Amino acid sequence: MPAVTDSGRATILFIEAVPDGILDTFKEIKTSEAFEERMRITVEVEEYFPEIAARITPASFGLLDEQAYLQTAITSIIHRPYVMENHTLILGCGDSVFLTDPITGHGCNTASYAAEQIYETLVTNKEAAWDEAVGQLIGTG
Ligand SMILES: Cc1cc2nc3c(=O)[nH]c(=O)nc-3n(C[C@H](O)[C@H](O)[C@H](O)COP(=O)(O)OP(=O)(O)OC[C@H]3O[C@@H](n4cnc5c(N)ncnc54)[C@H](O)[C@@H]3O)c2cc1C
User: CB of 108 closer than 6 A to ligand 1?
Assistant: First the structure.
């Protein structure tokens, strides 16, 4: 993936691994040095991605700094977006309701869409009591 960083343009290597599959070899890694080495081995030595390996200039291969890597392993989860507390409707939105792995790049989009839908439902029902029935509308919206 092309990226613009504080150090200029860079290319991000991005791997999605099936749990316990052949590419699932990063989970024990705790340091940037170990991460960089693991990535180098995965791409250049084990040759899972020959086309990518062919595009790498060895002299410029490496992390830009010790924080320039990210590992995630999140199981997506969807919660009901509302709860009634003392007859008050409490709404949720964003990651607290629908959490997806950041690597999918959808959390903000989903949160924005949900915020718009909540707004529309509340405006449409502005004369109603904002009770469980409205919560259910939001939950199915
Ligand atoms: C590395 C990475 C890359 C991502 N890339 C993408 C992408 O490309 N596209 C995309 O759509 N999404 C992406 N996401 C996901 C996206 O960032 C989240 O889905 C989105 O920010 C969720 O918004 P939110 O408002 O629910 O939560 P947040 O943005 O996490 O906001 C929650 C806020 O609540 C505050 N807070 C927490 N606890 C308390 C407390 N007790 N009291 C007061 N404040 C509190 C936090 O400090 C924070 O400011 C990415 C996420 C990560 C981590």
Answer: yes
